[in-house]
Write the C-alpha cells for this entry.
Amino acid sequence: MRALFCKDTLLRPFRSMRGDPDRWISRLVFLLGPWAALWMVEILNENDVFQDLAAWQVLMNMIWYYLLFALCQLILGRRRRSAAVAVTLCFLVGLLNHYILRFRGRILFPADVAGWRTAANVASDFDYSLDHYIVQAAVLLVAYLFLVWACPAQRRRDRMPRLAGALLILFGAGYSFAFFCTGMLPALGIYTQQWVTQANGFLLNFTVAMRYSSVDKPEDYSRDRVLELAEEYPAVEADGSVTRPVNIIAIMNESFADLTIFEGLELEEDPTPFLHSMTENTIKGWMYSPVTGGGTASVEFEYLTGFSTLFQPPHTVAYQLYVEEGMPSLAALAGSQGYETTAFHPYLSSGWNRPIAYQCLSFDHQLYQEDVEDPYLIRRYISDRSDYETIFDVTGTTSPAFVFNVTMQNHSGYAQGWNNLTKTIRLSTQLRTADSSAEQYIALAQASDDALEELIGYYSQVEEPTLIVFFGDHQPPLKNAFYEELYGKKLSERTTAEVLQQYAVPFFLWANYDIPEQSGVILSPNYLGVLTAQTAGLPLTGYMNFLAQMYQELPVITPVGLITADGQTLTESELNEEQQEWLWKYETFNYCGMIDLFDEARPFFCPPQDREQNG
C-alpha cells in the first residue's frame, strides 16, 4: 500500500504535465525568468556571466533574483504578469546602473539612491544614446517577454499552496536576516567590490554594499549632545606669526614605504638616501596607515577629512559609500583661505569614484593621466618624475595653490617588466626566495627617492614660499613569506606593536623657508591634515581643534591598534577610561560629520566661507 502511495506521489507531476502542459510551460518560462534577468543585467553591467563571475557569485545573485520573482508572484498572483513585471523592473534598474557605470566609471551603490535629487539636477548634461550593451540587453528582454506572451493566459489567479508560500517567506526572511544581520558575509570573505565594482555581479554587490553601508551610531549619540561637545572646541584663528605659503603641495606616494623599519631587512645600500638625509626645515617621522598592501582611497579620505576608518564597517571605502556634497575637508579649508585647489592622480579617473568624491570634497580642479603631457613611464605607469613635473606646471600657473597628488609609479604588482627601471640593489637570498618580486619594489622605492630629490631641489629654487607634505599611503603587498623573513617569526606570532610596523610609512613636511624642525614624530593620517594646516598657518575649524587636542592623548588611531602619548601600543579594549572618553567623542564627531551633518553642526566642521557656500 505504502509503495503504491509513493509511486502515485512521484508520478503525479508527470500526469499533471500530460494533462495540463500549458501550465507547466508557463511555470518553466517563469523559472527561466531570473536567469534571463541575471544575464540581461550583467550585460548592462558590462560583465560576461560565463567568464567574469565565479559560480558562488552567480548562485548568490540568483537567490536574490528568484526572491524578487517569487515576491512578484505572491503580490500579483499570475505567472505571466509577475514574470513580465519582474524582468522589466530588472531591465530598468540594470539600465540605470549602466548609465551610472558609463558616467561615473563604477556601478550603482545604495548611497546613490539617497542622493537621487543631486543626480536629477545634472541628469540633462549626460549622453543617453544607445550602445551595444543596451541593444543586447533590450533584445534579451524582448525575447523573454515574447516567451511570456506566448504562454497561455491563466483563467484564474494562481494561488500558491499555503505550505509552499510559508516556506518561501520563511526562507526569504531567514536568508535576508543572515545576509544583513549576521556575520555570514565576513565569515565567507564576501565584501563590497569597490575598485572593479562589477566584480560581484550587480545585484550581489548592491546588496553587499547595503550590508556594509550602515555606520553604527555611537552610544548616547544625539544632535544635542554633538552641539554640547562642540562648544568645548572653538575654532582657532590663523596664527599670524606663521609664514603662510603660496603653494601647499600634499603628495601621497603610492605604496611608498621605508622597509628599514624592520631589523630583518638586509640591503647592500640604502634605497632612499635622500629621504633619510632630510633635516633642514623638515618635520618628519612615521605615519601609521589604516591599511596595508592596498586601500589607497581610505588613506586619502582620512588625510583630507580627519575622519577615521576605525568607525566604518570593515573593507568599506568612504569615497564610494559616504562622501556627500559639502563634506568638510582640507581642500575646503584651503579654498576658504583663497587657495585654488587641485586634485591630481596620474591614472584612470574611474578608480574609487574619485571624480565625484573630489567634487564633494570641494576641489576646484581635477587632473588625471590624460592631463600629463608626454609622460615618462616606469614599467607601465606614469613615473613620479613626470608626476612632479605636472605639479610644477600647476603651481607655475596657479597662485596661491593647494595641490593634492596621489602618485602611481609604485603600484603593485612587482613582477612586471623593468621598463625604465634599473636593478641596482640585491636582496639577500632568503628574502629573494620568500618573494622574488620584492627587488622590483626596492628599485621603485629608489626611483621615487631620486624623483623626490628633484622635487625638493626644484622648490628650493622657487621664490614663492612652498610647503610640501609627503607620505606613503601603505606598505607594498609583498608576500607573507617576505614579511615573515623581515620579522623573523610567523605573522600569527606578532604582538600588536609588531603588527603596526607593517602599517608604518614615512612622512615629512618640508618648506623652502624656515619652519621648526622635528624628527621621530608619529601620527595617523587623520591627524596629518591638521598638522598641514598648523604648519601652513591656516585657521582650524572646531573639529580640527578637537583633533589637535586628541592628538596629545592618542597620536595614532588605526583599526589595527592605537598608540598613546606615552608610547604604549594598545587595542581599543585596553584603553583606560579617559582614553575611551576621547575615542567616544571622536566617534560621535566622526558619525555626525560623515553621516549626520545637520545645519547647526556645520559651523563646527566647516570653515566660514565653506558654510556660506554649502549651508
